[in-house]
Structure formats: C-alpha cells, structure tokens
Design a protein that fits this description.
about 325 residues, alpha/beta, Spore Coat Polysaccharide Biosynthesis Protein SpsA, Chain A, UDP N-Acetylglucosamine Acyltransferase, domain 1, seven-stranded mixed beta sheet, six-stranded parallel beta sheet, 29 strands, about 30% strand, elongated
C-alpha cells in the first residue's frame, strides 16, 4: 500500500505504548534507513544495529541486547499482524513469565515446528515439523512475536549464528525458566513470498487488518489517491484501491478493485488493472490486462498483453505486445 512493511510494525508497537525500537539488520541497511529514517514520522525512536555477518534470528537479537532492558518485545520483520501486544503483556506479567511466545492454532501444523503447552500456558516442549498426522502432538505454532526478559539475552552466544527458535527457546525451557505460550487469533500473515505479499495488501484494503496506518493520499470513494493523479475521459478507479503520486490513467482505463499503484505509473487507454500491485514507474500499454499479479519498478507491459494470477515481474521487465503470461 505504498508504505514499507516495517512502518506497519512500528505503528503497531506505538499503538501499544512501545516507542523505543531497535532494528537488527544486515541486508540493504542504507535502503532501510532511507525508507524509515529515525522513526520520528511514526512516533518512535528508531535505532539500528548492523551485523557484520548474518548471525541468525538469535544472533540478531543478541546484537541488540546492549540497548535493551526490562521486558523486550521482539517481532519477526516479515510478518504483518495486528496482534494485541497489550493483552500479551498482561498475560506475561500475570504468569510472572520471563519468556512469552505468541502462538497461533492451525488446522494442519505439518509445515511448522510445534509448541506444546500445559493447561496454564507453560511451554513444555518444542517439536520439529511432524512428517505425518500421527506425529502431531499439538496444533499451536510460533507466531514470531515474543516478550523476553532482557537479562536472558546474555545467554545467546555473541560470536556465531544462533537460531532463537531452535537453540535459545528450547534451552531456557530445559532449565525451568518460566516460559509461556500466549494463544491468540489476530490477523497474521508471513509475507515472505510474492503471493502472500500481494494477498496481504488485499487484506489491508478489505479492512481485515486493524492498523492505525492509512495509505498515503486522500481517501475518496473508498480508495486513496495521492497528489498529481491524472485521469483521462471515462477512466475510473474501483474501490478499494491505492493510487500513488503522479499516476496517469488513459482514456477508459479501469484500475481496481484491489489495485495498488506506485508513483508515476502510466496506465494506457482501455487497460485493465485488477488485484495487482505495481511498484513505481511501471508502464502498462493500451488495452493490456493485469490481474492478481505483482510488477516491480520500471517494468513495461506492452499493448494488449495479458499478465495473469501468480505472475511476479522483476524490476525493468519488458512484456511484448499481445503476450500472455500466467
């Protein structure tokens, strides 16, 4: 929706009173800094700790330990969720827990590692992905949001990659540290694949995610339009959609529903863009049809081409006239 995913996490944290945030990162750090800055625009103080080499999910947290104190909230960076962190903290405090994991219940847990809990929520064991339904001992899985006593972070080795899920959590459970699982069913989606990335934006557009963060632009007839949008005769935007700044819609073009267009996209006369995410500076030729796909920045779609569900096009891709993809 024309915002960085991490902006939604910062807004979620701020909504629950967390305004001091440390971002553990190692990849394209300057791009992240350019997108988020110091976090002030979202009401947070954002600091960065940069790994010289990737140190895993545990090593990244350990790298930030010197800046942490008290109860630390840790979130996986590729998750879109509206989890109630305030309720999770109440549960954590009531149990006098030192580590609390947000757990989700799934019908088929075979693709996931399982978390077994006692009736009061105390975590008993972590199980690897079961190979069959007979091996299922629980249907609760790790949701990638944790509350951790900062003093425990010193247990994570600082000189090698560490998995917080496979090493740190099992170790603190094994030595009888009070660890609990908080089971809840908020909106939750891992957006680490293109299809999930697109579907997450559809969910945001449909209001399935309780987020305080609106898309850039002015709300109009159920869609959001940024500055400088130009529309030719009979062009229309079907709600809900998000249209970035400087977008041009040719005569008779139809965009939406569930379309997200980045800045300076150009949609040719009579083209149809539905359920699709376009990044910045994408050109769509006259009469082209795009449906349920993702197109990265600077791509060019030829006239009367068709790009269908499940297709993901890289930055600068060129699709010839009258081609069909998907």
């Amino acid at each position: 929706m024309n915002r960085p995913l991490l902006a939604y996490q910062l807004a979620l944290l701020r909504r629950h009173g967390v305004a001091d945030v440390v971002l553990a990162c190692s990849y394209r750090v300057e791009d992240v800094r350019a997108a988020l800055g110091d976090g002030a625009a979202l009401g947070t103080r954002l600091r960065y700790v940069v790994e010289d080499v990737p140190r895993g999910t545990g090593g990244g947290v350990r790298n930030a330990a010197d800046l942490a104190h008290g109860v630390v909230c840790v979130l996986n960076g590729d998750v879109l969720t509206d989890v109630d962190l305030t309720a999770m903290r109440r549960f954590h405090d009531a149990r006098r827990s030192r580590v609390t994991l947000f757990l989700r219940t799934v019908e088929d847990p075979r693709p996931y590692g399982l978390v077994e809990c006692a009736d009061d929520g105390r975590i008993l064991a972590f199980r690897e992905k079961p190979e069959s339904l007979e091996g299922i001992t629980a249907r609760t899985i790790n949701g990638g949001v944790y509350l951790i006593d900062a003093a425990l972070l010193a247990r994570i080795p600082a000189d090698r990659p560490v998995s917080i899920e496979r090493e740190f959590f099992p170790a603190v459970v094994a030595d009888d540290t009070p660890c609990f699982g908080w089971i809840a069913e908020p909106y939750w989606r891992d957006i680490g694949a293109p299809a999930a990335y697109r579907e997450a934006q559809v969910d945001l557009l449909d209001g399935r995610v309780a987020s305080p963060l609106a898309p850039p632009g002015d709300a109009k007839d159920g869609s959001w339009l940024a500055d400088g949008v130009q529309a030719g005769r009979d062009a229309r935007v079907e709600a809900p959609s998000v249209i970035g700044s400087g977008v041009e819609l040719g005569e008779g073009a139809v965009v939406g529903p569930h379309a997200v267009l980045g800045a300076r996209c150009r949609i040719g006369a009579g083209a149809r863009v539905r359920g699709t995410v376009l990044w910045d500076d994408v050109t769509v030729g006259a009469g082209a049809i795009l449906r349920d796909c993702v197109v990265a920045s600077g791509a060019r779609i030829g006239a009367h081409a068709e790009v269908g569900p499940g297709v993901t096009l890289e930055a600068g891709a060129i699709v010839a006239e009258r081609s069909r993809l998907g």
